[in-house]
């Protein structure tokens, strides 16, 4: 039976429930009127999506089938119109799963001396050509690997890296000046994805990013992956033979070829006027690779607007349903990456928002799209695919509000909406904050680049005013440092690890306030006379104008 028929049957037979309650995804929390927020329903959704039964919601797995079935069923119950493929709630996203085999090797060669790096412990990564690769190429240190003419910065100046191995740090030159690389906030130039993209544009053979917790914002354990999903490669397009990471220990070994340590090299990379440093070594790579073509799926539904003319335009709510699936045995006794916070929480909010929106009388003038994306953990690929194949054109999409990793810490007295201030929807955001007595906080984790690490970024690149909604650090009845410490602990001990599991003591009481805050922003945007856009000079303004919005 094909997946589409299986899904249709599952939806059609949704009245036939499996035995059990939370364990099978068909839990029956205390009833609540359609338009009212149910904390029991939210808790049940988080608990089910993060249960061991869903095996970490890895793409292309049984966990995916269970997750999307559950989300689609809730969309249907809320009265959403299926706007995916073939009249379903599912939008197929074709990808390639690329796996680096255990026999992969990477070595530094200088004369007759060969220094091998340990797979996973000292290097990790995958082929971007989506095939096995063997290479022997000169290595060159490019600092942060950034070309940013608007900031007067060019690590590639007077350097030809075609056919070479580019060695860089992630992140970007430090700054307190908002006009220079966004000040303390990370810009897209600092993201590891940009490093690979820029080197690819310049014809590099491979890229090695030297990891430090300071520059990456998370420990090396997060990046030592040997597999990942990729968008299917266009025939004939240039791609990296290896897109990888080096541990700081391996980085010290490599940089020693020119008498530098990782710390010293980073200081050079941070200095204006940095010039590329040939490392005087070759990198030999043997990257045996297996690939599997897969089709994963977004879940997408629509609530039609009330205005005959404006209902062809929409606001869009997003949250990603996927997580990391099953880990290797080296993880320990628990090899399931449950992804309770990341992002069963956001999905639960998204599903509850469908009920709120669909119950409005009268409905807003514009329509609303609800999108649960796949493959966010693989580089926002589900959102990227939707942006290229939207159910409502991006030029007719008013705003995107995204929910990703909402720590259940209690009732917030502040919110973080980084990026909203860069849009003409900012007054709507401010008004909603005033209405709900919420202070708008600056993003204290902006240096980690969260704006570029969640699904709204894919919509923003397409021109849509887009941002994520987070509770701030002010939590009612809690110490001033309560939320900050919780986030620090999450990043250090829980993020992308099997420790991200559901807990019965989580306090979801703040979710309704956060949801109503976001709801009012979207409703006002859905009823506004004109579509919002990005502020003049913003990096996404050109894309918005290109889509037809001035």
CATH superfamily membership of the largest domain: Zn peptidases
Averaging pLDDT over every residue, what do you get? Answer: 91
Low-pLDDT residue spans: 1-34
Structurally, how many domains make up the residues?
2
Principal-axis shape: globular
**Main beta-sheet strand count, sense and barrel state:** 8 strands, mixed
Q: How many β-strand stretches?
A: 23
Coarse structural class: alpha/beta
Assigned CATH class of the largest domain: Alpha Beta
CATH architecture of the largest domain: 3-Layer(aba) Sandwich
Strand content: 15-25%
User: What fold name stands as the CATH topology of the largest domain?
Assistant: Aminopeptidase
Radius of gyration: 23 Å
How many angstroms separate the termini? 48 Å
Helix content: 25-40%
Please tell me about this protein's structure.
The protein has 550 residues and is of the alpha/beta class. The protein has two domains: 344 residues, Aminopeptidase (3-Layer(aba) Sandwich); 186 residues, Glucose Oxidase, domain 1, CATH 3.50.30.30. Helices cover 27% and strands 22% of the residues. Strands 1, 2, 11, 14, 15, 18, 19 and 22 form an eight-stranded mixed beta sheet that branches. Helix 10 links the parallel strand 20 and strand 21. Helix 10 packs across helix 13.
Summary?
The protein is an alpha/beta fold. The protein contains 14 helices and 23 strands.
List keywords for this structure.
single chain, alpha/beta, Glucose Oxidase, domain 1, 2 domains, 8-stranded mixed β-sheet, 23 strands
């Amino acid at each position: 039976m094909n997946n589409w028929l299986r899904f249709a049957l599952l939806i059609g037979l949704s009245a036939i429930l499996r035995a059990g309650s939370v364990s099978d995804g068909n839990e029956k929390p205390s009833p609540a009127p359609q338009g009212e927020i149910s904390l029991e329903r939210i808790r049940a959704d988080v608990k089910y999506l993060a249960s061991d039964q869903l095996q970490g919601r890895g793409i292309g797995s049984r966990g995916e089938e269970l997750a999307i079935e559950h989300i689609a069923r809730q969309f249907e119950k809320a009265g959403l119109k299926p706007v995916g493929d073939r009249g379903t709630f599912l939008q197929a996203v074709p990808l390639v799963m690329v796996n680096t085999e255990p026999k992969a090797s990477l070595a530094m060669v200088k004369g007759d001396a060969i220094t091998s790096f340990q797979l996973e412990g000292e290097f990790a990564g995958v082929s971007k050509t989506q095939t096995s690769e063997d290479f022997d190429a000169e290595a060159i240190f490019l600092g942060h690997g950034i070309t940013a003419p608007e900031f007067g910065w060019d690590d590639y100046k007077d350097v030809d890296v075609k056919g070479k191995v580019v060695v860089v740090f992630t992140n970007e030159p430090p700054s307190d000046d908002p006009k220079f690389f966004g000040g303390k906030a990370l810009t897209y130039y600092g993201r590891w994805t940009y490093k690979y993209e820029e080197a690819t544009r310049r014809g590099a053979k491979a890229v090695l990013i030297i990891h430090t917790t300071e520059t990456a914002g998370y420990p090396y354990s997060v990046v030592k992956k040997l597999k990942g999903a990729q968008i299917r490669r266009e025939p004939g397009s240039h791609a990296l033979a290896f897109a990888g990471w080096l541990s700081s220990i391996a980085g010290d070994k490599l940089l020693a070829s020119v008498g530098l340590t990782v710390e010293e090299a980073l200081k050079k990379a941070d200095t204006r006027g940095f010039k590329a440093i040939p490392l005087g070594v070759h990198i030999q790579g043997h990257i045996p690779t297996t690939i599997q073509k897969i089709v994963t799926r977004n879940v997408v539904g629509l609530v039609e607007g009330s205005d005959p003319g404006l209902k062809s335009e929409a606001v869009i709510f997003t949250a990603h349903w996927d997580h990391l699936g099953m880990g290797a045995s080296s993880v320990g006794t628990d090899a399931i990456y449950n992804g309770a916070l990341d992002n069963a929480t956001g999905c639960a909010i998204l599903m509850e928002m469908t009920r709120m929106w669909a119950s409005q009388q009268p409905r807003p003038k514009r329509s609303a799209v609800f999108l649960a994306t796949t493959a966010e953990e693989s580089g926002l690929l589900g959102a990227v695919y939707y942006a290229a194949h939207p159910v409502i054109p991006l030029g007719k999409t008013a705003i995107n509000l995204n929910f990703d990793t909402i720590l259940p810490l209690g009732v917030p007295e502040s919110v973080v909406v980084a990026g909203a201030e860069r849009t003409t929807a900012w007054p709507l955001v401010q008004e909603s904050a005033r209405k709900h007595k919420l202070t708008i906080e600056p993003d204290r984790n902006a240096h980690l680049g969260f704006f570029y690490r969640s699904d709204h970024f894919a919509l923003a690149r397409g021109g849509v005013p887009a941002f994520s909604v987070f509770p701030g650090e002010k939590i009612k009845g809690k110490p001033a440092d309560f939320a900050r410490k919780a986030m620090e602990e999450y990043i250090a001990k829980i993020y992308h690890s099997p420790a991200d599991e559901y807990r019965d003591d989580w306090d979801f009481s703040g979710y309704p306030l956060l949801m109503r805050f976001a709801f009012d922003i979207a409703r006002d945007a859905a009823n506004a006379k004109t579509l919002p856009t990005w502020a003049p000079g913003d990096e996404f303004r050109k894309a918005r104008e290109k889509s037809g919005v001035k």
